[in-house]
Each structure stands twice: as structure tokens, then as C-alpha cells.
Amino acid sequence: MTVEADESKLLKRMKDLHKEIDVMNDDKFRFSEINLDYIKNELFTSDFMKTHTDFPSFEKMIGSTSFKIENEIEFRDATDTAEWNQCIMKHTEFKNWNEMLRTSVIERATRKLMVKTL
């Protein structure tokens, strides 16, 4: 495969990624139908949490709150509260939950993009 073909594929992937990111710019961006395991294992990895928060894992962050989160509905309900956003502001580098969520999605997409191009 030529360098130009590789570059063309990379540019297409980058354009696709930017389209996905544009959708997330709305302050009302939320995950509604997503598996909690995916959130914990793919978005809020230990590397993400250690880099951007005071916690070594997403589970530890949840454990620091008064929320009992065992499924997607409880997760969605918790993230819609002022208490959750206060936790985000106090223990992360983000100003709110949406900013943290968007950053995790962008970082995951970048990781996946880099793996595919290697």
C-alpha cells in the first residue's frame, strides 16, 4: 500500500472522528443506551482516571459519592444531579460531567484510530 493510500485512509478516519465530536458539542450530550461495562472499561479506563482525576479507577470515583450505581439507569440518573457535577468539579480537571464525558469519548476514539493506523 502506498503512503498516499495510508494518508487518505487516515484523513477519512479523522473526518469521521470530527463528525462524531461535533455531535458531542451539545451540552445535552448523554449516553442513553450504552452498557455500563463499556463506560467503565472503554471510556473511563484506569489510565484516563489517573491522568484526569484524583481516583485510580471509575469505580473508586463512584464509591466516593453517595450513589449506588449498578446499572445504566442508576448511572444516568446519578449523572443528572448537582452532586455528581460537584464531584466532577472537586476531583477532576473538568468543569462538569459533559466535559469529562466528551473528553473520554475523544480519547477513546483517538486510541482506536491510532491502533488501526499502526
Please tell me about this protein's structure:
With 118 residues, the chain is mainly alpha-helical. The chain has one domain (3-117). It is built from seven helices and no strands. α1 packs antiparallel against α7 (97-117). The longest helix has 21 residues, at 3-23. It is elongated.
Shape: elongated
Radius of gyration: 16 Å
Distance between the termini: 13 Å
Helix content: 55-70%
Strand content: under 5%
Number of helices: 7
Class by helix and strand content? Answer: mainly alpha
Run of helices and strands: HHHHHHH
- Average pLDDT, rounded to a whole number, is 80
- Largest sheet composition: none
Task: Tell me the total number of β-strands.
Answer: 0
Poorly predicted segments = none
Count of domains = 1
Outline:
With 118 residues, this protein is mostly helical. Helix content is 69%, strand content 0%.
Distinctive features:
118 residues; 7 helices; mainly alpha
Show the helix and strand layout.
Blueprint: H1 3-23, H2 36-43, H3 46-52, H4 58-63, H5 72-79, H6 82-91, H7 97-117
